[in-house]
Amino acid sequence: MTATPFRLPVSRSRVLAASLLLAAATALSACQTSPTSNLGSIDAAQGSTQNIASLSSVISRNPQDPEAYNVRGSAYGRGGRYREALKDFDQAISLKPDYYQAYSNRALIYRFTNDQQNALADYNKAIQINPNYDAAYIGRGNLYRQAGRTQEAFNDFQKAIQLDTTDARAYHNRGLLYQRQGQHALALEDFSTAISLSPDAPEPYNGRGLSYLATNDEDNAFTDFNMAIKLNDKLAESWANQALIYERRGDKARAAKSYARAVQLDPNYGPAKEGLSRTRGV
């Protein structure tokens, strides 16, 4: 797939004009600023106590095995035990200084602990060791995107895709950038590819639904938002997006119900609070 060069700047106001579509723009903006599949680039080890105990037994038998520390660090990361995760990744790198996967995993933990400088340094190191490591480009791209360094983020997602990544996040995140610039045809293509690579992830359905909505394809947007809820009914964004369709259709009762569910899940989610205020007339 040949990607159109990323263009800066493009005004979002030319994409969504009507009042309800402005509400969609608010939801779209909120979607773009939240990380997606944050732990997706950490190894698949689960953070259960039982699993960590098993991994610790492996380490006790093989204390010089860097891979064992990397896997346990991943499990700690899954379980939110970031301090222990960092210690294990440190040990893995100490035992194997060219362990680019451990650098990339440690970078993600640094992101979660708001140490963006060390996160960037670790992603850079991973890429320096292995310039073909797609996960590091995706992780660094997310770091750039959240810092507002849009062009650098796009370049990293593009690089991962050029490396034939099978990681859905590269396409999803590039789709978010296309979407933000009003390039919805390209965004739809990227979100669809992300869905094909990770059909159980709700985020690409929300992203694609918003681009469908921006192009006035309300039926497909509604289908995607409903699928996002089916896959994970704990995401405020999905309920707020569904509510927006109900609101556009004039069904304020259902809209208010869905907005209320979104607020219940995330009381600080702006699009849901604003939508609930509109549909309840508060």
From TrEMBL:
The keyword Repeat applies. It comes from the Bacteria. It holds the Pfam family TPR_11. TPR repeats lie at residues 66-99, 100-133, 134-167, 168-201, 202-235, 236-269. Keywords: Repeat, Signal, TPR repeat. Residues 1-30 form the signal peptide. This is Tetratricopeptide repeat protein.
